[in-house]
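Standup notes
- HV: blocked on the assembly model, inputs below
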Amino acid sequence: DAKTTQPTSMDCAEGRAANLPCNHSTISGNEYVYWYRQIHSQGPQYIIHGLKNNETNEMASLIITEDRKSSTLILPHATLRDTAVYYCIVRGQGGSEKLVFGKGTKLTVNP
Amino acid sequence: DAGVIQSPRHEVTEMGQEVTLRCKPISGHDYLFWYRQTMMRGLELLIYFNNNVPIDDSGMPEDRFSAKMPNASFSTLKIQPSEPRDSAVYFCASSLAGVYYGYTFGSGTRLTVV
């Protein structure tokens, strides 16, 4: 699996957009970018994934650069309940089904 | 759907005892994964199954660990004998096949070996 690099921690004010970056400079053409989050003491939760186009769902937006070497997860209006560790993971199509988690970014949303 | 169900939520056992963790995946999901999480090592994939068949057990730490999936609705992770260093939160997850689907994780089992 391609490696990803994320900041260790970030802070965001409640109600503001949270922009979480991820670097995946060695990503291959058939590999997807996935985002999960883990709220304290809970199991990880799937957020969104994409290949090369930007994606949006009810939880977040995913912006992938044209060269696909980096991406940004956007939580448009962060709330205190969005405080969690956010994991950016790269996984290939047609290959292993397994997801390998790194250390992620600890996002703290402040009142 | 009740999601992925794990039991027990908490387990405290003495060193040397056998421990069995249980998981019920989401009905219809093809894949089942067992992860372990500690502060030091983060989330580690132990083993995963496809259609009840173990595919990759390279993450299983040693022979004391074993996992089975006797049918599509049930899996167990067994540690025998348990050691204090096995203390961790163990998560089970399931998913449909293909990159278009995310995993659904259970709430985990917090294991403490004293």
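- HV (later): unblocked. The radius of gyration of chain B is 13 Å. Chain B has a mean pLDDT of 94.
- Next: hand off to the docking folks.
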